[in-house]
Amino acid sequence: MSKSNQEWWPNRLNLAMLDQNARDAGPYGEDFDYGEAFESLDLDEVKSDIEDALTSSQDWWPADYGHYGPLMIRMAWHSAGTYRTTDGRGGAAGGTQRFAPLDSWPDNANLDKARRLLWPVKQKYGRNLSWADLIVLAGNVAMESMGFDTFGFAGGREDEFEADESVDWGPEQEMESWDRFDEEDMLANPLGATVMGLIYVNPEGPEGEPDPEWSASRIRESFSRMAMNDKETAALIAGGHTFGKVHGADDPEEHVGPEPAAAPIEDMGLGWESDFGSGMGDDTITSGIEGPWNSTPTMWDTSYLDNLLNHEWEPEQGPGGAWQWRPVDADAVDAAPKAHDPEGEQTPMMLTTDVALKRDPDYREIVEEFQSNPMEFLDAFAKAWYKLIHRDMGPPERFLGPEVPEETMIWQDPLPDRDFQPVGDEAAAQLKEEILDSDRSRQQLVKTAWASASTYRDSDKRGGANGARIRLEPQRSWEVNEPAELETVLETYEDIQAEFNDSRSDGTAVSLADLIVLGGNAAIEAAAADAGYDVTVPFEPGRVDAEAEWTDEESFEALEPGTDGFRNYLGDADDSDRTPEELLVDRADLLDLTPEEMTALVGGLRTLGATYGDTDHGVFTDEPGTLDNDFFVNLLDMRYEWEEGDEDGVYEGYDRDTGEVVWTGTRFDLIFGSHDRLRALSEVYAAEDGEQQFVEDFVEVWHEVMTLDRFDLE
Ligand code: HEM
After folding, report:
1. What three-state secondary structure class fits 250?
2. 200 C-alpha to center of ligand 1: Å?
3. Model pTM?
4. Residue 636: other Cβ atoms inside 10 A
5. Whose CA is nearest to atom 23 of ligand 1?
């Protein structure tokens, strides 16, 4: 097999993640609607089938204590727990735990069995029940079946049919290594986990050291990337480890075979075959740590907290050779039955990460409060678990099914109900005229609409133009949004809005969110007209304006673009270990764009002159504000020779005849001339017959970006 381009030239800009956006549809086709399919299910029947599967032990992987519940909770947690706020990637959506690398991560050992145990349920419901939904639902059913009252469940997650190429899982070349901390022990962005191949932290303690205090700081750092505060974190760990046991009957190094992606073909996608004893049951080796946390591992109660807080624990290396903690006075702790021999007994243990909850003063206060107030523990765990498994689903409209709680959570970035009639075509046309007649430039209008809509991230469906959160903190103060200029634009819009809404007595009104998009559209139509194209940018009214009290300012900080290649804003690109063009592709992926769409958008925004600080970089035209193909024509023109300029990150385009600098640009621009595929696309638009297509493509993708968050239209 010959090497791929990426293997020959590892530094070549990789567009694979954008190619994935181009073939999103999957085997059920474009018209298939996972949400509708989920809603057609009888959820009670599905849940009862899952519970049957959980309580029917199979000889090929017998259930601990006769109940697969704890194994399923671990699977659901590992599915959802890859989510990180930094870029919204990871998480339960997509059901990507079925694919490498996740299916073969050391932390996901033996979860291949958990998914196989659920296959009969998946097979019965087929396309109506996605794996993504089934994996987390199995976690909920498991808890309910073991006496816990869950807060709710929402379905509608879509399945992916290949691994998500866009997720940066870390720089290491080997599993279970860590090369992601700076001198201050800070975890590199955008990572959530502290070790390659683990969901969050090393259970033995940081870098394999049984050091509970250090472990606590790692837990705090990494769980905060999962959007969890101290209370939620403590509730999740304590709640989760109320159930089940850890498996390390002997040394994994000696007995356990390769993970699924490396296993022989006859293993049929299963991995971690063990030659220790029977390789299963009480001989199971998973993490290499061994023992239950309490004497009632298939029951919801406070016995985990009681064991943790009422007894002293000391480190030891268990039968698997890993660090774990045993009670100093083993006789004082109630023994658990052996998982596959009810006559036998096993002394409970703790992980370093469990002991961390006791040694860290802030966590300790919380777990003590939980112990003395079990209802608070239940409520905190129920809500944190609900958040964990739904955090990447986006706004409330996407939460489907009969078990969605009445209560909307602030982390869903809720919007108020619309209590007015959105504007029709005629009013929209009138408003566009008023906007164009105002003192605001085309650039200001386009940039404001872009700033508003382009916060959207398809990874966790947050951000976007709806809600006009651009007028709220923190967005209105983001450097990339040029706050002073933004304020003047918002003031203009507020005046136009007030005048329009006051003049209407028929219940029609325009939201600021709609007006911001409409302004961008108006500017683009005018710019296209100047280039000789009569276009109407589609407009879908009906957005509403969010309220500050329903906006979790802190959680929106994660959406701030450190760089934005679309506006030619380099920002903190220097601090990144990725090139500006890689950061552009990353952002394009979060906007769910294909390589073609990214190309049209950048070309259009440049010729419109919609750049950060109105810089000339990349504005390869004599007529900024006209929607033509000048960006591509001049970028590809051999009349110009490009060289690195004196200013950091800036390149200069010389006229070969006169030797004069005619253009300046950044890597965000030059990549469209230097990269083979992006150049091929740029040629399409730069050709004499390419301009009309460019204008049409730009308008189409602009409209797409403006409506990325309009789940209310579906
Ligand atoms: C600091 C974070 C955590 C660490 C380091 C950790 C580590 C581990 C380890 C090493 C195991 C044993 C796997 C095996 O050998 O079978 C385990 C099991 C388990 N974990 Fe966690 N865990 C963490 C958080 C959580 C959370 C947040 C939940 C759920 C809310 C959870 C639920 C479970 C359950 C139910 C099991 C038992 C699985 C079984 O019985 O087969 N864990 N965990």
Report:
1. coil
2. 11
3. 0.97
4. 17
5. 237
DSSP assignments along 205-247, one per residue: -GGG---HHHHHHHHHHHHHTTT--HHHHHHHHHHHTTS-EE-
Q: What is the DSSP letter of 484?
A: H
H/E stretch holding 352 reads helix 352-359
**Where are the chain's structural domains?**
206-383, 425-713
Q: How far is Cα 710 from Cα 291, in angstroms, rounded to an integer?
A: 49
Catalytic positions, please? Answer: 78
The mean pLDDT value of the chain amounts to 97
Ligand 1: distance of its center to the CA of 201 in Å? Answer: 11
pLDDT tens digits for range 310-327: 999 999 999 999 999 999
Nearest-atom index, ligand 1, CA of 244: 40
Q: Which of 19-28, 49-58, 155-164, 257-266 has the lowest mean pLDDT?
A: 19-28
Query: Ligand 1, residues 246, 289, 298: which to mutate, most atoms within 8 A of Cβ?
Result: 246
Predicted confidence at residue 23, as pLDDT, reads: 76
401 vs 49: CA distance, rounded Å: 17
Predicted pLDDT of residue 602: 98
Topology of the domain covering 206-383: Peroxidase; domain 2 (1.10.420)
Decide if pLDDT at 24 tops 80: no
Ligand 1 centre and the CA of 174: distance in Å? 22
* CA 37 / ligand 1 centre spacing (Å): 32
The CATH number of 425-713 is which of 1.10.150.120, 3.30.1390.10, 2.70.40.10, 1.10.520.10? Answer: 1.10.520.10
State which ligand 1 atom lies nearest to the alpha carbon of 201: 5
Rounded to an integer, what is the distance from CA 178 to the centroid of its chain? Answer: 22
* Residue 41 DSSP symbol: S
213 CA → ligand 1 middle, Å: 19
Nearest residue to 40 via CA among 401, 406, 404: 401
Which atom of ligand 1 lies nearest, measured to the CA of 215?
A: 1
Closest Cα to atom 24 of ligand 1? 237
Q: What is the pLDDT of residues 51-94, one digit of tens each?
A: 999 999 999 999 999 999 999 999 999 999 999 999 999 999 99
Q: How far is the CA of 398 from the centre of ligand 1 (A)?
A: 29
| pLDDT value of residue 301 | 98
Cβ atoms of 160 and 96 within 8 Å: the answer is yes
Measured between alpha carbons, how far is 156 from 233 in angstroms, rounded to an integer? 26
Q: Best of 61, 74, 350, 383 to mutate for ligand 1, by most ligand atoms within 8 A of CB?
A: 74
What are the tens digits of pLDDT across the range 333-367? 999 999 999 899 999 999 999 999 999 999 999 99
Ligand 1: lining residues by beta carbon, under 6 Å: 64, 70-71, 73-74, 77, 200-201, 203, 219, 236-237, 239-241, 243-247, 286-287, 289, 351, 353, 385
pLDDT in tens, 253-307: 999 999 999 999 999 999 999 999 999 999 999 999 999 999 999 999 999 999 9
**Which of ligand 1's atoms lies nearest the C-alpha of 242?**
35
Q: 68 burial class (0-12, 13-18, 19+ CB within 10 angstroms)? A: buried
The mean per-residue pLDDT over the stretch 375-399 comes to 97
Shortest-distance atom of ligand 1 to CA 219: 1
Atom 4 in ligand 1: which residue has the minimum CA distance? Answer: 203
